[in-house]
């Protein structure tokens, strides 16, 4: 499947330049194996959203990356059916003719793929509506890209979890691979992970 230019991402770039804090994750981990799924659930997370390529799978591969299989099992044990959602900038977008890629991913991973008209990071409203979340801080977004996955979470008021280590650049979208390298350089030079003491026992929101 050919992934088209992310116009929503380009439009969002100006906002990200003005508000670089939107690129700061709440939690940075090596990959999904380091995510404390059960601890997140106890801390108040009720829904979890995943990017697919280079977060759960190799680029444009439907099946879970084999080393992540146990972490994926733990995630699905911690979060009940209907509380996990895949949000990709390929499968489930207008690039996915007839939704065929989304259906293939759903069969391989066993969780739904969001059908969304606009790409990350501009689809926060669609994500929250699909999950039926009572509050954005009930939702954690997990992904390898700062300018799409982390920004999606921050724009929507959700919890941002950044997976720093990708699966592979083999078969990856060239533009995405280049932008990811720039994001890592910018992050290492300027950004800091937010205070996430709430993840160690306190609730993640207050009202």
TrEMBL record:
Q: Which Gene3D superfamilies match?
A: HAD superfamily/HAD-like
The Gene Ontology terms for molecular function here are:
phosphatidylglycerophosphatase activity
Q: Which named protein is this?
A: Uncharacterized protein
Q: Which SUPFAM superfamilies match?
A: HAD-like
Q: Which Pfam families match?
A: PGP_phosphatase
Q: Out of the domains of life, which is the source?
A: Eukaryota
InterPro entries for the chain = HAD-like_sf (IPR036412), HAD_sf (IPR023214), PGP_Pase (IPR027706), PGPP1/Gep4 (IPR010021)
Q: Which PANTHER family match?
A: 4-NITROPHENYLPHOSPHATASE-RELATED, PHOSPHATIDYLGLYCEROPHOSPHATASE GEP4, MITOCHONDRIAL
What Gene Ontology cellular-component terms does the record carry?
cytoplasm
Q: Source taxonomy lineage?
A: Eukaryota, Fungi, Fungi incertae sedis, Zoopagomycota, Kickxellomycotina
